[in-house]
Write a structure and sequence with these properties.
The complex is a heterodimer. Chain A is mostly beta strands. Chain A has no helices and eleven strands. In chain A, strands 2, 4, 5, 6, 9, 10 and 11 form a seven-stranded mixed sheet that branches. Chain A has a four-stranded antiparallel sheet with strand order 1-3-8-7, with no helix packed on it. In chain B, 0% of the residues lie in helices and 41% in strands. Classes of the chains: A mainly beta, B mainly beta.
């Protein structure tokens, strides 16, 4: 059974950094690109970014709203995807989800974690 | 990038059918058959219910169907049930970004 479990969320002050983890199981992690999404309270989904599988270069792409502040990485030996979030702002407050794509570029995601809440506030 | 356009809310009575629209441009919805739909109950993760405009993942009820005409994709839910009350998001491949576009979401209320 495919499972994705996010962790690392919490209350953080503006300007500080936080790293979220997405621990995967039930599939060959290294074969898949992985994505991060977020959802601000009462708002829609926003695709934060994704990281390609190492077979496809292991490179990452980001939404304009987080580019330069967030970094997505992966450790295939541990089946974990990360998002390092720096210079956090109040508008980064959201539930963060990781997701495994059925079709990455086409935006088709068939497995999702339950999310971890990040609250940026002083 | 601009989001796809969805109505903020729709409603229907049990047993009825409803349709949710998702409007884009020639760079996304209108140009490619890569539209997906997700269902999200409050406090839960999104669930893929339609991909590639009209395909259903295994296990998704055939009460959910998708279609597209021009720049607008549509999700139809037939035989509405109470458990269908949720938020629904569309997404589409786009040539204007490395990331697919998402709609703002539609809240479905089952009366």
């Amino acid at each position: 059974e495919v499972q994705l479990v996010e962790s690392g969320g919490g209350l953080i002050q503006p300007g500080r950094s936080l790293r979220l983890s997405c621990t995967a199981s039930g599939f060959t992690f290294g074969d898949y690109g992985m994505s991060w999404f977020r959802q601000a309270p009462g708002k829609g989904l926003e695709w934060v970014g994704f990281i390609r599988s190492n077979i496809h270069g292991g490179t990452a792409e980001y939404a304009a709203s987080v580019k330069g502040r967030f970094t997505i990485s992966r450790d295939d030996s541990k089946s974990i995807a990360y998002v390092q979030m720096n210079s956090l702002k109040s508008e980064d407050t959201a539930v963060y989800f990781c997701s495994r794509p059925l079709k990455l570029v086409q935006g088709v995601f068939d497995y999702w974690g339950q999310g971890t809440l990040v609250t940026v506030s002083s | 990038q601009s989001a796809l356009t969805q109505p903020a809310s729709v409603s229907g009575s049990p047993g009825q059918s409803i349709t949710i629209s998702c409007t884009g441009t020639t760079s996304d919805v209108g140009g490619y058959d890569y539209v997906s739909w997700y269902q999200q109950h409050p406090g839960k993760a999104p669930k893929l219910i339609i991909f590639d405009v009209s395909d259903r993942p295994s296990g998704v009820s055939n009460r959910f169907s998708g279609s597209k005409s021009g720049y607008t994709a549509s999700l139809t839910i037939s035989g509405l049930q109470a458990e269908d009350e949720a938020d629904y998001f569309c997404s589409s491949y786009t040539t204007t970004s490395n990331l697919a576009l998402f709609g703002g979401g539609t809240r479905l209320t089952v009366l």
